[in-house]
Amino acid sequence: MDQNLQEREFCFLQDLTRKLASREIDLPPFPDIYARIIRTIHDPDVSLQDVSRIVVAAPDLCVRILLLANSALLNRSGIKVTDLNIAVSRLGLSAVNSATVTLATKDVFKAPKGSSLEYLLNKTRMESVKVAAYSYLLAIRAGLREEKHNAMLAGLLHNIGTYYILSMAG
Predict the structure, then answer these.
(1) Tens digits of residue pLDDT in 9-27
(2) In the chain, N or C: fewer CB atoms in 10 Å?
(3) Long-range residue pairs from 114-117, CB within 8 A, at least 24 positions apart, any chain
(4) For residue 29, pLDDT beyond 60
């Protein structure tokens, strides 16, 4: 390994150590629209129409919800759903929340197209989604249905340090 590369790696580790010790870690911000949607979903007085109205502000989430509502699993009648209110009611708040968190984490840790880290960041994100799915199911199987969304979120964010190190290394 060349001396210059070793020095850069050492400087990176020193800087990371300093930031961790002083709690100066700057993670990418969670997109505001997704945070508002999640807050709305968790409001005990929220209606499905309220959720549909706020979801419209995130076009990518609208597409995801419509795709899920029209999936073979949820659309056994075969009648295509194009109305967001119907799609949200078909999915339920739980699935809309899961789709929101998944899209938000995808946006937060997006690598520039063609970047040398794009593959590693995508691989790490896919691993997080898999762990989130297992966490969700494990919470249900363990009788913790009320905590299934927290388990899913923990699974999505379990390796956030990897994201940070990869994004800083880039």
Answers:
(1) 777 777 777 877 777 766 5
(2) N
(3) 115/170, 116/170, 117/166, 117/167, 117/169, 117/170
(4) no
Residue 73's domain comprises 31-92
Tokens, residue 107? 């946006």
CA distance 44 to 53: 16
The domain tally of the chain equals: 1
Residue 143: pLDDT over 60: yes
Residue type, 77: S
Residues 6+ apart with CB under 8 A from 63: none
- CA 72/CA 69 separation, integer angstroms: 9
Q: Token pair for residue 108?
A: 């937060």
- Is the CB of residue 109 less than 8 Å from the CB of residue 121? yes
Say if 58 falls within a structural domain: yes
pLDDT tens for each residue of 90-125: 888 888 988 887 787 776 666 667 777 778 877 888
In a domain, 73, yes or no: yes
